[in-house]
Design brief:
The strands form 3 sheets. Strands 2-1-3-6 form a 4-stranded parallel sheet, sandwiched between helices. The protein has a 3-stranded antiparallel sheet with strand order 7-8-9, with helices on one face. By secondary structure, the chain is α/β, with parallel strands linked by helices. The two termini are 29 Å apart. The protein is built from 4 helices and 9 strands.
């Protein structure tokens, strides 16, 4: 096992009922040596994680780290103007998050975002342009064009998704199979 978890899970959309299983929480509970399940209530743990990742973006990490944001549409803290101290500088949470998205990959910090619905908040401040790899599930033709530059809405339905890679052509694949 690693010295400390290298996957940081922000489960902003936890399931709290007896019917559905909260898969992200279940994984974090089963693999605590690998997955840091960030407490999103109150936001203090989010502030601490953002500050640490922000600082790590200035130097290459000794090993890759992953930030998984599940339910970004509910991540108001990641979009807020509240200030946190990062590497001796006060920055807003939103700016710290954008810094991690922009500078992180070159230094071994990779971000994966899950958002249930394609909305304008993911395109603000060119956030979408920071992701060279995207997967689109069922969505409207306009959203599909904005999200993955795909003009054929018929290519995405309940059984088919589109894998977007900025360097290559879009690839269609059956959902629940690898692209």
């Amino acid at each position: 096992a690693p010295e400390k978890p290298f996957i940081h899970l922000m489960n902003l959309k936890p399931l709290n009922d007896s019917y559905f299983v909260d898969i992200p929480k279940m994984l974090a509970d089963e693999l605590p040596a690998y997955i840091d399940n960030v407490n999103c209530a109150g936001g203090e743990d989010i502030n601490e994680l953002l500050a640490g990742l922000y600082s790590s973006c200035n130097d290459p990490c000794p090993h890759d780290e992953y930030l998984l944001v599940f339910g970004y549409q509910r991540g108001e803290k990641l979009k807020s103007d509240s200030m946190i101290s990062c590497a001796g500088t006060d920055v807003s949470c939103a700016d710290a998050f954008m810094h991690v998205l922009e500078k992180g990959p070159a230094n071994g910090i990779h971000t994966i975002i899950w958002q249930d619905k394609f909305r304008g908040d993911i395109t603000e401040d060119s956030m979408l342009s920071r992701f060279d790899l995207r997967i689109a599930f069922e969505m409207t033709a306009d959203n599909l064009l904005s999200f993955i530059m795909e003009d054929n809405a018929d290519s995405v339905d309940e059984n088919t998704a589109v894998y977007y890679n900025a360097l290559y052509d879009n690839q269609r694949f059956r959902v629940y199979q690898s692209p």
